[in-house]
């Protein structure tokens, strides 16, 4: 009988259906043992797929007194549920919050349908007031997830719901392996540097689209040089320019763990690429490099082509959307 299979076997079987909720739900009531295995799978990625306000209500009912207090100024009607059989938020492994349209985003949808209290049609349609309230709700929810989740791996935070208190909670977290930030704030860069120093589990960092210049990268530089856990760094769509290329060259010369680096659209130019290329002759950890759309000319491409003849670790190089022609890959 399949019901007598060991826990590890059942977990592997059910994980194969982690996106097929219909099958998982049909197995929930077979027996208590199966239920305890399936529930964590069903509730592992609450913000990745859902727009159902029933889920939002369950999570809002899990807010403690401190987290509810953050919402008092907004006069929100919070749901009042009985304590559920499981602490669903504790199973969260993937967490992402975006400001989305009120009819698509789960939190916005719930507030539009049930959460508003003293809003009339005029005040509710005030985009700024609406956005501030939604951000406050998401901030409280995020605080709750950081408090209760026992195995949070992926965290994505957008700027409007970001504050120092949340950063301090992230600093103390010992389970997060992938962090994606949309912040655009120099002070947060300093906090991020502290996170890189203190967090030994973080292996993927995505800080693209944050208007980061050489000045901000310089703040992160020492922490990135010393990090032994970080494997993947994504810096796409910032303003690193040639100076940033020099800073990245120093990072690559000292960091011993980074295997993937994405610098797409940063105006690094051929001068910045030259500095990176010199280090790539010696670097023996980086296997993926994306420097597409960086105003690199033919001479810059030639320098990189020579690196590829020597460096046998770098197996993937993206040079798309640069000022290249058919002769760019020739060796001279």
Automatic annotation (TrEMBL):
It comes from Gigaspora margarita. InterPro entries: F-box-like_dom_sf (IPR036047), F-box_dom (IPR001810), Leu-rich_rpt (IPR001611), LRR-containing (IPR052394), LRR_dom_sf (IPR032675). It comes from the Eukaryota. Pfam families: F-box-like, LRR_6. This is RNI-like protein. Gene3D superfamilies: 1.20.1280.50, Ribonuclease Inhibitor. Residues 3-46 form the F-box domain.
